[in-house]
Fold this sequence. Notes:
The structure holds 2 protein chains of 2 kinds.
Chain A: E1 14-19, E2 22-25, E3 29-30, H1 31-50, H2 69-93, H3 96-101, H4 103-125, H5 149-158, H6 184-197, H7 204-217, H8 219-222, H9 248-257, H10 272-285, H11 301-310
Antiparallel strand pairs in A: 1-2
Helix pairs in contact in A: 2-10, 4-10, 5-10, 6-7, 6-9, 7-11
Chain B: H1 22-33, E1 37-38, H2 51-69, E2 86-89, E3 94-97, E4 100-102, H3 108-128, H4 131-136, H5 138-154, H6 157-165, H7 170-195, H8 201-209, H9 215-235, H10 237-243, H11 246-249, E5 260-263, H12 265-268, H13 291-295, H14 315-327, E6 334-337, H15 339-346, H16 358-379, E7 384-390, E8 397-398, E9 404-414, E10 420-427, E11 433-435, E12 444-449, E13 453-463, E14 471-480, E15 483-492
Antiparallel strand pairs in B: 2-3, 3-4, 5-6, 7-9, 8-9, 9-13, 10-12, 10-14, 11-13, 14-15
Amino acid sequence: MSERERDDHTGTETTGHEWDGIKELDTPLPRWWLWTWYGSILAAVVYWVLMPAWPGLTGYTRGILGQSDRAQVVQDLGGLAKQRHAGESRLRAATLQQIEADPELQSYAMQVGASVFGDNCATCHGAGGAGAKGYPNLRDDVWLWGGSLDAIQHTIQVGVRSGHPQARGETVMPAFGRDQMLDDAKINDLTEYVVALSGRKADGAAVARARQTFTDQCIACHGPAGTGDVSRGIPNLTDAEWLYGSSREAIRDQIWNGRNGVMPTWEARFSPETVKALAVYVHANAGGVAEPVAPAKTVAAEGVLAGAAGR
Amino acid sequence: MTTVIDNVNRTPPPEGPGPRSVAEAARDKARDKGSLYKPRVPIYPKLVHGQWRRIKWALLILTLAVYYITPWIRWERPGALPDQAVLVDFFGRRFYAFGIQLWPQEVYFITGLLVIAALALFLVTALFGRLWCGYACPQTVWTDLYIYVERAFEGDRNARMRLAAAPWTFDKIWRKGGKHAVWLAVAFGTGGAWIFYFRDAPTLLREFWTGQAPLTSYLSCAILTVTTYVFAGHMREQVCTYMCPWPRIQGAMLDEHSLQVTYRRDRGEARGPHKKGQSWEGRGDCIDCQACVVACPMGIDIRDGAQLECINCGLCIDACDEIMDRVGRPRALIAYDTDFAVAARAAKQPPSYKFVRARTIYYTVALLAVSGLVGWGLANREPLDLHALRDRNPTFVRLHDGSVRNGYTLKIANRTFAPVAVRVDLSGVPGARLSTPGERAGLAVETTVPANEVRALRVFVTANPTDDEASLPATFRVTGGAMSTDADTTFLTGAETAP
């Protein structure tokens, strides 16, 4: 090995690298640094002995401590269930109204509900519960099946047209167009009539023509004023809420195709305590009013229609 | 160049045998062996007497006393709140410092404190060099304490060097053993004191010895015991030289006007041995006695000028002053001085000192600004605090009658030690009605915030705005007794903005 250049100042060898007259010193590392490195190697060997480390063809070295992340998860889940036990028994003992009135218990229920909602309900109703076309908005004050705590709890339990013996949704909206119950012109007129029902401007002549059709086909469920019936999940046609859209095209589409929403029953999947928590969560986010559906608009449909026709 | 500052004319090392600085010895040893690694040459600092040593003892006692005693100071607080003056309560999520109680949301006060500490360090370093390193740094303080223990068992420098070279006799075994035992005891006490900052000290002491303390306490105590023992007992100057970033950083704060421990080469050179009765004419005051080198806990030769390893502890000043007294020359051959003054004297000009410089001015301004901000923030903390979090999904909901509802979560913090009944109202949205789940809508909502807690309150605001603004600025106000606080937010009306 040839003699390397030494720096006069420090007496240390240089690496021979030089930039603009600045030379790099080959300063030796402190000896303890080396020991630290040996220590790390030793620690790795100890780790191989203690912990699962080396993969093999059919398995892996398990280590003498018997550490297993899977077993740990199972144990942690058991611990979690134990931890939740206290909260769950409180939920079980209280009525929905009592849960809502107790800030601490409500806060607990809200946390449980938020988590369950995110995992199960958000797929259709949206992460915030605002719904989408065909999927009801759970944050407003319009409820097809009732917005009281008990009604929400019942809907979650049995679902809508879910196959559950008590499922909600014994009524269905017929597909007037697809099933050729009404012809094109009648459906167009009926669309104008429904637009007029919600207080919007409509073609007066069409509304007049559709009056008889509405009486024949619609009032059995939607009522003479079009205000629907919450006890059977019949939508109110006079309010600002439209599950399948408020435009003429959307309304006509619904009369033609008669879509009927489905919601699964959650009874088998959730414990009764979880359903309670979820009901409290949904109710609180919707405003938490005892009976959120406002009394059906006391506007005489005829009056509205007369006005609409005149406009 | 490896040194941070290098404006010193170096004299070549003295020829022939004689004590050399350990740094040089280490270099030689590494060079001779052709090793890639530099062995640590043990340093045996000699005890010195003098004013800087006295100051260091005083600061050692003061800083250690503050560290060990602080957790035991009691401070009466109402109810079930801890009665410890200084406590970092992770479980209760509070930081207590005497009359101040900080919540996790206010961690910026701690940030501010750290910024103040950093700026103060900058300022002190620019003015007086590495005072922190030499006097207050825990590494220096504990190393000093450990060397004190070492000296008590093994004697001063020469005795320690003899003992290290001596065969293993009973005398050596008990001296070494005793030293390590006391070191470990000190380390254990240090780690032990640390954990008391995080849990009620008397309770934890009892729990600790009855085996009921949390595992974290035992682990923290064990880790600090080991680090203290290793750093202060075995690694000492290696921590400063190799592990600490500050010696590198402080080069940016120092300039030629910073006071540092300086060998006044203008007076000392040319150095050389001096016999009693010899003339001092035509030579320097340095008699090359190596007193400064053997006193140095970092194992350097201060006469090489300012260097990275030097922690500015001033022990070489005391060592040199002792010698100067003995040989009848004036003191302060090594002293706190500036490079500028030394250069001036060397050029036969009167030295001048400049403490007001651009960097000291802006460090001071920044320090005052941040201190003022933190102080103002602490003085103006509201006992009630309000944060309004808008629902973001959905941002608004249209109700059956066409009105619009926005949801908010209000976080109302009550920093007092009593429950506060509060009333929440909103301004900025015409005709707004407020409601909380389970309550009828009205102009305001009321609730009670428990003592020293945050209450999360869901509030719905329903309005039927008539204008076409898509969003309205709004303000929540929480009023509780004489206290009140505001939080700004917005109300989305659902109106489509004009394209």
